Amino acid sequence: MTGLVTRQCVTSLWTGGHKAAISRNMTPNDTLDACGLLCPLPVLKLRKRLKSLSIGETITVQADDPAAVIDVPHFCAEAGQELLSATEANGIQTYVIRRTV
């Protein structure tokens, strides 16, 4: 099975191979339900929603688009936003992002 790339592997590559610790009592400033949306809509809606946040505020994004596992971390890296966590459960990907610019 060489050459097989898993979602966890791709996410690990885009997050620098580490997972940031997120406090359980940390409440996001905003949430975005992007379930049912296909590429590129989850990232486009995330970009628009981030503009309404102040620097340092966080947003939680939920998506079920298979491409989001690559698109969201890539967007964060390219746009200079901080991807705090990326998890998946029951086919739903959950991202916590901090606005940094």
> What global shape is seen?
globular
Tell me which CATH architecture applies here: 2-Layer Sandwich
Strand order of the largest sheet: 1-2-4-3
Average pLDDT value?
Answer: 84
The level 1 CATH classification is Alpha Beta
Give your account of this protein's structure.
With 101 residues, the protein is α+β, with helices and mostly antiparallel strands. 31% of the residues lie in helices and 25% in strands. It has three helices and four strands, in the order αβαβαββ. It has a four-stranded mixed sheet with strand order 1-2-4-3, covered by helices on one side. α1 runs parallel beside α3. The radius of gyration is 13 Å and the shape is globular. The N terminus is likely disordered.
Feature tags:
single chain; 101 residues; alpha+beta; Translation Initiation Factor IF3; four-stranded mixed β-sheet; 3 helices; 4 strands; 31% helix; globular; disordered N terminus
